[in-house]
Amino acid sequence: MTSAAAAQAAWFAAQIQSTYPKVWPETVRALMVHSAEWTDALKKQFLPSQHTKTNRERLLRICGYGVPDLERALYSAANSLTLIAQAELQPYDKNEKGRPITKEMHFYDLPWPKDVLLDLPLDTPVQMRVTLSYFIEPGPGEIGWKDRYRYASHALRFKVNSPGESKGDFLKRVNKAAREEDEGHPGTPSDSEHWFFGPFARNKGSIHSDIWEGSAAELANSHFMAVYPLVGWWRERYHLGRWNRRTRYAFVVSISTPEEQVDIYTPVANQVGITVPIAVET
Fold first, then answer.
1. 159 belongs to a structural domain
2. Which Pfam families match (predicted)?
């Protein structure tokens, strides 16, 4: 990062922190990434018109998540909705035999305005974006540069249920995916059809952001989300005494529709008890 870019990023982060003084650094970073989009020039240069997930991964590797937008980071329009969560979990524990095990997973039922979504024409395109942000503790010493389980203290992942997938089936899929990644298998791309990047490309580093695209009817039935840990050196090198540490994370989820006259913000605001300003004509 150049010195000018660093100054711009610091200013951007300061605006978020000033507007929402209680948010964590994890949340500030999540909002910055979540608000970013690629310019037309970037997409023209790095994303062919008939692009594949390989092309998209190249775009992410070269251009990151694009150019952040402060207005989008701070506020929701009527035809869009942004949910923010801050939480902490304990990734690992020891069993009765003293062996390290994975401990906690967090499950969310997102309060989508189902009635509003289902009232739209069935083929109305809807976009959902999910960003998960956390910080890792690098492995002590030089060990770990070539071993993903030894460099990062822990790793977190997110998944959203597929349209029509029940809560029970979704939890089974999450547990299966966690086991496969722990065993060094990348898993299957079965849940990546709707995602811009998919799990293979987005699950790098300690901030993960992806865009889901589908119909309004499909999104109305995709409202379960899980945040779960993978193996890190806190667990594998448990003799260092970090196996019971807790970690913080923030996630941002937003949905938007192309219909500017469709208000998806107010129903959710009323559901969770947020005061909605009313414009009064004089």
1. yes
2. Peptidase_S8 (PF00082)
Ranges of the chain with pLDDT below 70: 1-2, 76-79, 142-149, 182-191, 259-261, 269, 272-282
pLDDT at 193: 82
The CA dihedral of 181, 186, 191, 196, to the nearest 10 degrees, is 120
Between the alpha carbon of residue 32 and those of residues 95, 187, 238, 241, 249, the distances in Å are 39, 29, 34, 34, 15
Residue 127 lies in a domain: yes
Q: What is the pLDDT of residue 278?
A: 39
Dihedral sign for Cα 94, 97, 99, 105, please: negative
Number of domains in the chain: 1
| Residues with Cβ within 8 Å of residue 89, at least 6 apart in sequence | 103, 104, 105, 106, 227, 229, 246, 247, 249
pLDDT tens profile 156-177: 999 999 988 999 999 999 998 8
Give the contacts of 196 (CB within 8 A, at least 6 positions apart): 56, 210, 211, 212, 213
8 Å CB contact between 216 and 122: yes
The total of other beta-carbon atoms located within 10 Å of residue 222's CB is 22
Position 68 in a domain:
no
Residue 133 structural domain: 77-272
pTM above 0.85, yes or no: yes
Res 159: pLDDT: 95
